[in-house]
Structure formats: C-alpha cells, structure tokens
## 1
Amino acid sequence: MSNHDPEGARRGVEEMEAKLKAARAANPKPSHNEAPSNVMSQRQTGVAYRVLVDMIAGLLVGGFLGYWLDRWLGWAPYSLVTGLVLGFVAGANNAWRAIRAYSKDAAVTGSGGDDGNRRLP
Amino acid sequence: MHSPMEQFEIKRLLHLNLFGIDASFTNSSTWMIIAVILATAVFVWGMRQRALVPGKLQSVAELGYEFIAGMVRDNVGDGGKKYFPFILTLFIFILFCNVLGMVPYSFTPTSHIVVTFAMAAFVFVGVTLIGFARHGVHFLSLFVPKGVPFALLLLLVPIEIISYFIRPFSLSIRLFANMLAGHTMLKVFGGFVVMLGIIGGWAPLAFIVVFTGLELLIAFLQAYVFAILTCLYLNDAIHLHH
C-alpha cells in the first residue's frame, strides 16, 4: 500500500477498522485496572531511581565542594562538614520534590483508588 | 578469567592528536556513531513510504515520536514545542546506546561518566541559558521559596542553589551507574556459569536470562528518565515554578 493511491489507502483503513472492531468484539478487554497500574508502576520505578541518586549526588556534590574549600582556604574540617550537611539537605530536598510531584499526580489520576498511603501532605 | 570491568576499557582505534589534546577515535566513538546511524536509519527508512497505515518500522518510528511529543506536551506545556527536536534526539540517542550495549561484544558508551556528564552538562547549561534569556535576572527567583520569613531564607537559598547545581550530577550519575552496574553484574554471573561448570552453572545462567530482560527494561527506563528530567528542568526554566 503506497501513498500514491489515496483511495486505496482509505479503503484499507476502513477495512482495517472493521477488522479491528470485529477483533475487539471477539476479545473483550481484560480487567480495566490492569493497564493504569502497570503504567504507574513504571513511573514509580522512575521516581525510585530519581530519589536514590538525588540523595547520593547531593552528598557527593556537597562533600566535594567542602573538600575543595578546605584545600583552597585551609578551613579543614569545617567546610567539609558544612558541605556534607548542606549537600545532604539539598539532595533530600530534590528527592522530596520528586516524591511530592509524583504523589500529586497519583492523587489526580486516582490510580490505586482510595489507597491513602500514597498521598502525602 | 577476564575481569568484569574489562568490557568498559577504552581502546584507541585511530590515533589523533589535536593541539595537544588526545582526540583519538575510540571504540566508544564507534558505537556512538553506530547508534546515530541506526537511529537515523530507523526514522528515515521507516518513514520513507509515509503510509497512512504504518508498516512495522514506521510504527516504531511513530511510536517513538509520539511518546516524546506527549512527554514534552505534558511536562513542559506551551513553549516546549521548540525544544522537542532536542529532547527526541537525546532520548533516541541514549536509548540506542543503551540497547546496543546489550549486544554481545559491543560497547556501551553510556556506561562512561564522561559521556553522560557531557550530555547532562549540556542540558544544564542550556536550560540555565534559556531561563536567563526568557526571564533575565528574574530567573534567580527560582532560588527563593515563596512565603518564607527572611531569617529562614538565609538558610534556604543556599540549599536551593546547591539543589540546582546537583542536577547535572544526579542526571549523569544515574545513567552511568545503572549501565555500569548492570553490565558488571551480567559479566560476574557469566563468570559464575564458567566456574560452576556443567553441573551447577545452570542456576546463574537462568539468572542471566532473567537479568538480561531486566537490563533491557532499565536501558529503556534510563533513557526515559533522562528525557523526562530534561523536560522537567526545561519546565522550571520556562515557567519559573516548581
């Protein structure tokens, strides 16, 4: 089937639609909640990866910054400690933001029904 | 026995020295070029007929396009259309690098932090420039949370700034660590198969089969996460809220 024959293509689409309708009638959809929960679990995996690495990267960046300041200005060990604490807080901040965005979406789409533990304040 | 890290070794295929910088053509570059060529082939060859009812390859190309188009529409909204080609390219390139890395004897460019950090740094600098170009100095209000007393701002603004600068690191570490860990794990369990031999080697072999499937999922998922985070950062820069 090529684009040089629009009439034939249109007929092809109509035929395929009829076939699709017949196939859908023959096999009714499986239970309706299966698809969204699958989509959601993929997003959950994505959010989990974000949270994990956000917190580690926060520590790494803060620690590196503090270490570098120590070397440069000779403030050892205060800037390393401050950097680690700030980095941890910043990483947790990023992670919290990811979780909050996700839980807001989950509450809106309502997948999981009245699954209360998914909602955060 | 080969070391599990041997697969990540960079080999120079073509020695090249540009003004004192080692710019040799390596196995990593080769596989990146293969990824680019294959991705281009899927899109160009797949769309050559522009059929109303898509064939197999055209379905794949359209699926990738629609997937990213929907992602940009949902996460960036208006004003994001301009950046859609960039995000599609980024996603497809990472996806092809990741998936091609699953081919035996191949090389995974995304398992090196230089590659992933270069991409993440490009996204970071680009997004920051877009933010400044759109909002000027007002872009800095991204670092000031609303409705917070002044005393707390002294503490919160540095945290917000560090949070912002963590982005390229978390973006690159996530992709690189996932690819590195997965491939190392596969190689280690491959070593177990050889060590345990014909009697006990079946258990790790079965694990490898399952784990290869998981790795394919992760290859897709990491490309997806990279693309969606780029969208979210772009959204922050364009609409100035989070």
Note: The CA atoms of residues 59 and 95 of chain A lie 12 Å apart.
## 2
Amino acid sequence: MIADGGAKVVELRGVHKRFGDLHVLKGIDLAIEQHEVLCVIGPSGSGKSTLLRCVNLLEEPSDGEVRIDGERINAPGVDIDRVRTKVGIVFQAFNLFPHRTALGNVTLALEKVIGLPKSEARRRAIEQLGHVGLAEKADAYPSQLSGGQQQRVAIARALAMQPTVMLFDEITSALDPELVQEVLDVMKTLAREGMTMLVVTHEMGFAREVGNRVIFIDEGRIVEQGTPAEIFGEPKNQRTRDFLSRVL
Amino acid sequence: MAGLELVEVHRVRGREAVAGLIAAGAALAIVLVGAARETLDLRFLADQYFNVDAIRGLGPFLARGAFNTLRLAVIGEVGGVVIGLAVALIVISKRRWVRAPGIAYVDLFRGTPLLMQLSFIYLALPFVGLRFDVFTAGAAGLALNSAAYVAEIFRAGIQSVERGQMEAARGLGMPYRAAMRYVIVPQAFRRVIPPLVNEFIALLKDSSLVSALGATVASRELLRVARDAYSQTANATPFVVASLIYLLMTLPLTRIVSRLERGLKAPA
C-alpha cells in the first residue's frame, strides 16, 4: 500500500477488455490514491492505453469494476458525462479542436458542460493557459502552435475542469524530440502541486523521477509493480528486465 | 500562405484557360465540319441562335425568371441543408431502428425522379388537405429532394472528422449531442462546403422542373421564360440567352467558394 494511505481516487478490480477475439486486458487490479503519480510502462500492444481509457470509459470494460472516488462508474444508470468532468484526459495526438482558438478550446466545456458564464469561463481558461505557460497564445489557433504548445493547451483544457485525477496517454510520443521537455516540465509541475495522475509513458526518465509508483504491464497483465527505485533498480521479473534493457 | 494562394490562383486560371480552349476548339470544329460538308449557313445560325430581335422586350421577363430560379434554388438549398443535416445525424446513429427511417428517406428521394416528387406534392397532397401554389410546392419539393443528397454529404463530412475529436469532447464530459453540435458538425461543415455548392448549382438547374407543374407570368423560372418565348417566335435565341444567364449565376459561385474555403481552413 501507499505510504500516506490516502483515499482511493481510481480503483480497477478484475478489469478485462476484449475486442472481438482479441483479449487485451486480462484482469487488471489497481488503485490510485490521492496525490499519487502512477506511471504505466510496457511494450507497445501490451494494453497500457486501453487500461487508461477504461478509467474514463472511453473503452467500456468487458468485465470487472471501475470506481472513481469510490463510486462504481461502469454500471447501468451512471451519468458518465458527470463522472468524466472529474477525470481529465490528455491524448497522444493532442486532439485540440482545430476550429477554436487555444482559449476557445479551454472555454468550450466550461461553458457547455459546467455552464459557467462566458466571462468566468474566460477568466479560468486564461488562468489555466498561464499555468502551462501559454497565456500569450490564447488567441492562436491550434494550427499556429507547435506540437509542444498544442499539447500544453490540451493539458490546460483538461485542467480547467478541475478534475480529481488526470490521465496522460503517451502524451509526448507524437512530439519532436526537442519539444518533449516543455511538456514533461508541465507534468512535473502538476505532480509537485499534488495532482493525482495516471501516466502511460515511454519516458523512463520521467517515470523514474516523478512517479511514486511504476507498473509494468505486458500482454494485458500487470507483471510487476513497485517504487521507481524497485522497478528500475532491481526488477524482479525477467520480462521487466528484458523490457527495460531494450528501452534504457 | 501567400505561396499557396498563388498556386490556387494559378490553378483557377489554368482551369479557365483549358475551358476556353475546349470551347474554342468545339466552335472551330463545328465551323470546319460545316464548311467541309457545305451545309454551314452562317446567316441561318445567326438568325436562329443569336437574333437580337427575338429577345427584344424579353429583358424584364428574363430578369424575373432568373430571380425566381435563384429564389427556388436558395430555398431548396437552405431547406435541404436544415433537413439534410437532421437526416444525416439520424443516419449515423448506432441504433438500427433510429437509422432506418433516415436511410429510407434518402433512398426514397434519391431513387425517384424529382419531377414525380414535385407532382406528388402539388397534385396528390391536396387530396389530404395540403394545398400549395406552384412556387411553394416547387420550393418544398426541391428542399426535400436536395435534403437526401445533402444528408449523404453531411454523413461523409461528419465521418471524416477524426475519431479523436469526439473522444476529446466526450473526455471533457460533453454529452454526445453537445459534442456533435460544438465540435464535430462545425468541422464537418467546413469540409462539405464544396459539395454543398455543387448541390446548389444542381438546384439552380433542377429548379427548371418546377415549371412543369404550371406557371403564372410572375412565377415562371428562367428556362420557362425562354421556352415560352421560343414557342411564340420559334427562335432559339432566348435559350442561348437563358443558358448564358445560368452560366453567369453558377460561375462566380465556384470562385467565391474557393476563397471562402481558404479563409476557413486557416482562420487567422
């Protein structure tokens, strides 16, 4: 268990996911506590992105339970839209809305989902864009921003909803190498501020430095988990060692 | 951006040049073939097709006709876009029983002749108490018919928007409808402008079918004005003039749209 024994923000119990005959997740159990940064590593195709997408039900688990703040969310009658406002997600491909400015990307859900008045939505959006260092780019369209800037806007967009947990799905993988750092820096700041984070990543340096806990997943199962020092310093499982020797 | 614009302009110029060459070539071919077969009667040609006397006094009627044609096409397009978008949203539903009536609508209106649809509205609906004048029936028929094509245009446009856009919107807690309205459809709209203009051009010409229901002097559309003039004088010049007016109405559209598209693609 985690040192401070905080409340479980996210909990997965026996989660399976099948796409037709393809069995992607084979019984995942995990919990993320408040203020924890949980990093998920593993080879491509291992199921890490699917795992993350099960947390906000962008993928519906075939079996098992998903709980947010103790509430089971993959059950009939749950208003998933309400739950999703508490779970921010940032994608590998940014997925900014190209027809809206950076500001417009951040304000959209504030106005249309939370129902904030325009001025209040704008104020909060500017604040969040400032948080990721892009206040001066508020009026720029996504096509006028670099990949790193777009991804930071995407982070601001998710943060503006004031989620209780943030999901990051390989968010630096589509970036040019020289733009990776500015995005990682934003994530580090968030971690320092105590944001609860689930981070699927190929950035082993980030996982080692920022993660409280690291999970190694392969072929749909959690193979090994522990502190970064344990996983990167003395991995017990042969598959973990093989994987790390390939990527480090 | 400036470079791209230049390429675009060049392409348009190039297209005009090619069209001009083809037209000139065709005219030359007609003259040459006629000359070779010794049947070319230039005076007859001029008298039948380019006779100023035959269109004397026709100006106000042609103008009125062009105005009616434009009106029918505009109502048809606007109605078609409104109904077509609704049908498209029904057709992309995951639930089969929601989809079914939308698909049936598209099949029905694309699969039967427009003239029959117009006749049905004007001639059959009065039996159930729905009586329209020719113009209203015609405009409604054009709108309902074009909605079927527009629905297919929107469906393709909506499905061309990257999956990640819907996921990003839903991930922020937006319900499906809000995601469609604020994220997906606005992007789809930009992408379907060219086919929507094609649809409008088709409507400009299809509107000539409305006259088949009958016409008063005030409600005649362009082709009907020309046909009436022809039947009075047995001279084809009004058709030539009407064709030129159709061309005048359609040509600027493509120009305006290519400019519009460029503006929307890179909003600055």
Note: Residues 2-40 of chain B form one domain.
